[in-house]
Structure to design on (696 residues):
């Protein structure tokens, strides 16, 4: 890549910020075209994301979703695999968690059901990504296309199950019954109140701790284990990896399954933490946002936490837009998201050449004595 | 005799509804064919179609003419196609990332602009008859309707569609002709297989790919206009509802060839049309199948095909590889 000749702080700090500025700039132009003041919109978003009571909880709740889906995309990216199937893997992960809760919560104490449900979410997500990985590794069908197809199949499966066997008896909304209270993840404001602090209600729950643990896990896995070394080798050059004796098909399958497990874990935040039941469409695009998060966060867990916070703030602040303005909708967030993917992903090399000219010259100005 | 005629009439009605459901798939799949044959992956069919649908409905409402709507749809879709080209061809960005960006951008922008223009929660106002494409009776449909079978076929299945359905059907031979019988098409296909050869023959790889991407934009625009101003009577948020991805599946299913792709589109259209009919039918032993489950069939079939269980779908060799001119 042409990134080599750039100083690290430019590559990892300046370029993401410039990309974000460009995305916000174009979104600002759209707001101005609509006839509203973009700076006021930005202020409303910032206030809505961090300052209003309870808003921070919502921001961190969304952040949790994006950490999981961002890590999922990033892990696969390390092996140059593009897992666009986070949406479907999260949906099926939610199904796994819900099945465990529905089957066990009347009989077994919640403290045992919860870890089982979390494992089921990861396992179901992994299973849903295993197949595309397996097909790429053994039959040569590209994961991009198969994971897209699997997103739609997952949505169909979920609708079929929720409208049929899993529907809460005696109602027509396609959703399951509520899980038993002790079989759900405690919300942060409940814990705070139990400890005597006052805190506004929000769907933020202990999943965020699981998410942060997942970050540490991915960092150790990718940069501190033999698996991670093979993974990064595969990402740099498949022939080199093969020559070094890496079992490439096995790596592809394993990596896709791990990536799917991370995406599947996203479901615990919503299904076990916030809704406490399984609903249709609960993934609402978070899987796709994971792509933006991974690109923005440069596929590194630390970057992903920062990017997730950014997107969490965008989602929560964006919801505020619809209340404050008559003509701006929260869909504005998708415009910003699309632009961020465009600038920091598809147009990633656009800034490299000019910035390279600007910064690469600097060390050469002072010749060696 | 009349029993057979009745069954035939039923079949022809299903065929007619299949054609109506397949038309946007055909247009999008042909769009994808131009782009991908030239080596540029097009995940953004969905977004371009959605943007086209919005532009068509908005322009038709504001101007009162479906033709103005059609032009706006093509313009909006080509604009997105040019962004795709700028990212993937000029800056050699990742083609899939760019497609994802375009889909998300279109899904947000259509609703944001829709609310700003019409304040109806992202929808456009319902279109009047004069603002939509109307069914066209083919010449002699009345005259031949008395002829058994052929008359029914001509009158029920072929005649009475709107202009864009016929355009979709014409797009297939047109695409086949351009791609396989012109030197432009030969170069375009070569650019998707061996761009270095085209480059050394003195043709610009970038300009050929740009033209392919623009053609894809035009066709997706037509598909979008079909959704909102021909099949439907106005824009509804997310109205493309995955059709762009089904078209992509059809393109792969048809192995990037015009006629097999057409049949894949018709097959997927027929599935959608029968899914609607099956929605309230109790099947023996299985019970009622939810429509959404039947509607996943195109995706399942495509995965099975990609896995190589019936025939192999081999993409153009240089697909998704940005071209770097040797220095």
């Amino acid at each position: 890549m042409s990134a080599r000749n750039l100083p690290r702080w430019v590559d990892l700090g300046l370029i993401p910020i410039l990309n974000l500025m460009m995305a916000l700039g174009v979104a600002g132009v759209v707001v101005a075209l609509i006839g509203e003041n973009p700076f006021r919109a930005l202020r409303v978003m910032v206030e809505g994301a961090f300052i209003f009571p309870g808003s921070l909880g919502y921001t961190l709740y969304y952040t949790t979703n994006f950490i999981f889906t961002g890590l999922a995309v990033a892990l696969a990216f390390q092996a140059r695999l593009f897992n666009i199937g986070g949406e479907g893997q999260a949906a099926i992960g939610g199904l796994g968690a819900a099945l465990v809760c529905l089957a066990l919560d009347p009989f077994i104490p919640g403290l045992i059901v919860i870890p089982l449900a979390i494992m089921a979410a990861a396992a179901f997500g992994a299973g849903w990504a295993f197949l595309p990985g397996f097909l790429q590794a053994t039959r040569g069908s590209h994961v991009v296309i198969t994971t897209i197809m699997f997103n739609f199949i997952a949505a169909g499966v979920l609708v079929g199950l929720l409208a049929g066997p899993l529907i809460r008896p005696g109602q027509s909304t396609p959703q399951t019954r509520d899980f038993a209270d002790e079989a759900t993840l405690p919300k942060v404001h409940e814990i705070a109140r139990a400890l005597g602090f006052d805190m506004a209600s929000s769907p933020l729950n202990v999943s965020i701790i699981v998410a942060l643990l997942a970050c540490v896990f991915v960092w150790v896995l990718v940069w501190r284990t033999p698996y991670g070394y093979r993974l990064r080798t595969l990402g740099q050059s498949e022939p080199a990896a093969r020559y070094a004796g890496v079992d490439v098909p096995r790596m592809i399958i394993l990596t896709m399954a791990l990536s799917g497990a991370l995406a599947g874990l996203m479901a615990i935040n919503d299904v076990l933490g916030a809704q406490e039941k399984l609903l249709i469409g609960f993934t609402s695009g978070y899987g796709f946002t994971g792509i933006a998060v991974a690109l923005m966060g440069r596929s590194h867990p630390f970057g992903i936490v920062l990017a997730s916070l950014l997107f969490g703030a965008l989602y929560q602040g964006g919801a505020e837009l619809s209340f404050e303005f008559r003509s701006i909708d929260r869909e504005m967030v998708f415009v910003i998201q699309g632009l961020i993917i465009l600038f920091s992903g598809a147009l990633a090399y656009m800034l490299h050449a000019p910035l390279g000219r600007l910064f690469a010259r600097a060390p050469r100005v002072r010749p060696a004595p | 005799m009349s029993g057979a005629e009745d069954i035939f009439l039923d079949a022809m009605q299903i065929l007619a509804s299949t054609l109506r459901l397949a038309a946007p798939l055909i247009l999008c799949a042909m769009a994808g064919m131009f782009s991908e044959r030239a080596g540029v992956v097009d995940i953004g069919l969905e977004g371009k179609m959605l943007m086209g649908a919005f532009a068509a409905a908005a322009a038709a409402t504001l101007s009162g003419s479906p033709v103005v709507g059609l032009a706006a749809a093509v313009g909006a879709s080509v604009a997105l196609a040019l962004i795709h080209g700028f990212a993937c061809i000029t800056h050699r960005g990742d083609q899939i990332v760019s497609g994802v960006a375009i889909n998300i951008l279109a899904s947000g922008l259509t609703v944001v602009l829709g609310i700003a223009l019409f304040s109806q929660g992202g929808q456009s106002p319902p279109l009047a008859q004069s603002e939509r494409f109307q069914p066209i009776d083919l010449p002699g449909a009345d005259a031949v309707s008395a002829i058994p079978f052929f008359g029914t076929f001509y009158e029920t299945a072929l005649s009475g569609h709107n202009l864009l359905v016929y355009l979709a059907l014409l797009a297939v031979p047109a695409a086949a002709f351009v791609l396989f019988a012109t030197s432009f098409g030969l170069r375009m296909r070569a650019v998707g297989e061996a761009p270095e050869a085209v480059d050394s023959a003195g043709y610009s790889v970038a300009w050929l790919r740009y033209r392919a991407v623009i053609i894809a934009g035009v066709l997706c625009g037509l598909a979008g206009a079909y959704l909102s101003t021909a099949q439907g009577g106005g824009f509804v948020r997310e109205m493309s509802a995955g059709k762009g991805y089904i078209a992509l599946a059809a393109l792969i299913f048809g192995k990037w060839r015009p006629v097999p792709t057409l049949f894949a589109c018709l097959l997927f259209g027929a599935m959608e049309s029968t899914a609607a009919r099956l929605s309230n039918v109790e099947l023996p032993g299985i019970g009622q199948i939810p429509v959404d489950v039947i509607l996943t069939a195109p995706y399942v079939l495509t995965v099975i095909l990609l896995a190589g269980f019936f025939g192999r779908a081999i993409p153009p060799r240089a697909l998704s590889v940005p071209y770097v001119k040797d220095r």
Summary: The mean pLDDT of chain B is 90. Chain B touches chain A through 49 residues (CB under 8 Å). The longest helix of chain B spans residues 2-37. The radius of gyration of chain B is 21 Å.
